[in-house]
Structure formats: C-alpha cells, structure tokens
Amino acid sequence: MNIINNIRIHIPFYINKRYNIPSNGDFLHFCIIFKRKGKKITPIYTGYNCNRIHAEINAINKIKDEKNVIIFVFRITKTGKLTSSKPCSNCTKKIYENNIKNIYYSENDQNIYMANINNLLKNPHVRTSK
C-alpha cells in the first residue's frame, strides 16, 4: 500500500469523529504527524486550528525529537469533502525547521498531493505530485 492510500484510510476517522472543536465556519482543518517505518505509517500527533494557531503548528509543537516522520494537512467540509490545505509560508518554515522532509496535503479536487519541503520552500505555488 502506498503512503497516500495509507493516509486516506485515516480520513474517515476524522470525518466521523468531528471532534468537539470550533470550526472555521464551513470546514475543520487538521494536521496528522505520522511515524514512518518502511511502508507502514502510524499516526502519533494530531493538531487542528485553534485560537488562530494553524493545525500544522499545533501538531508540530507536540514533537519531541521524533525522527522519520511525515506530515499530512487536510481540511474537511461539513459535508465530508476535502478542500485545499497546502501549508502557508510560516507553517512551511516551521516544518522545515523540524526536519520534516515530505508534506502531504489535500486539495479541492479531492486528491492528496505530496511536496518535498525544499521544493515547497523554493516555489510554494506549484502543485507537486499525486
């Protein structure tokens, strides 16, 4: 199973759970940090938008010297659809500072994309790979 398919199996949990958190109107914004061992990934930290703190920062602030992690950022509408959640420049810098190499994020087309942190820092407007 590839990483994107492995990530996708975790999304229904968040859609169904719906957390008792304030939403930003029409969507909830989540970030999951996964520990990677070979092709297997395990969620270890979760963050969400809270009091103007971005989901990425919320999750990254929980990391304690974790190695070999990937980050997945996604927005879910009230109807369960994925929307655009590519990290902003400040979150991208924080991800880089924590030595996270690959970022997975949702887009309006319902796909999950992967971006290498170095490519994202150089050109934040380019969508990389599905």
Account of the 3D structure:
The structure is a single chain. The protein has helices spanning 3-8, 11-17, 55-60, 89-97, 117-122, and strands at residues 27-37, 40-48, 69-77, 82-83, 102-106, 112-116. It is an alpha+beta fold and 130 residues long. It has one domain (3-122): Cytidine Deaminase, domain 2 (3-Layer(aba) Sandwich). Strands 1, 2, 3, 4, 5 and 6 form a six-stranded mixed β-sheet that branches. The longest helix has 9 residues, at 89-97. The chain starts with a helix and ends in an 8-residue tail after the last helix.
Structural class: alpha+beta
Total domain modules? 1
CATH superfamily membership: Cytidine Deaminase, domain 2
Q: Report the principal-axis shape.
A: globular
Element-by-element helix/strand order: HHEEHEEHEEH
What is the multimeric organization of the chains shown? single chain
Parts with pLDDT < 50 across at least 5 consecutive residues: none
